[in-house]
Amino acid sequence: MKPIKIFSIAMTVSILLGMTFSCEKPAGPGGKASVTGKLYAKDFDKYATVKLSEYYVAGENVFICYGDNKAVGNDVKTSADGSFEFLYLNKGHYRIFANSRDTSIHYNGSNKEIAV
């Protein structure tokens, strides 16, 4: 029996913005900001009542959407310690997410908007 995996992303937003006096650029690549974080999983029994394990996840894809765009703008794989990084972003709003392999339960997670 395969355990249920629930992913959550613990994100730290690193802002490395230089002084710019030009027109405002849209969210997306081309700037000096970055978003970093770690992907964390909790495995539960088939009833989602007993937590079996929890750990940082290596080798999984993490996705970023730029601004109000619904399409994925880029993706990266997590490193051995579960960390990921999106570099060289313009100031803007981004949506970061990872997909769980098991969709047998509904997870009431919340979306968090990140301003960079």
Walk me through the structure:
By secondary structure, the chain is mostly beta strands. The chain has one domain (4-18, 27-101). Helices cover 0% and strands 49% of the residues. It contains no helices and eight strands. Strands 1, 2, 3 and 6 form a four-stranded antiparallel sheet that branches. A four-stranded antiparallel sheet has the order 5-4-7-8, with no helix packed on it. It is elongated, with a radius of gyration of 16 Å. Mean pLDDT is 79; it is low at 11-22.
Order of helices and strands: EEEEEEEE
- Poorly predicted regions are 11-22
The total tally of domains equals 1
Q: From the structure provided, what is the oligomeric state, counting identical versus distinct chains?
A: single chain
Please tally the helical runs, counting DSSP H or I stretches of 4 or more residues: 0
Structural class: mainly beta
Strand content: over 45%
How many strands in all? Answer: 8
| Helical content (DSSP H or I, runs of 4+) | under 10%
Q: What is the general shape?
A: elongated
- Sheet with the most strands, sense and barrel status: 4 strands, antiparallel
What integer value in Å does the Rg equal?
16 Å
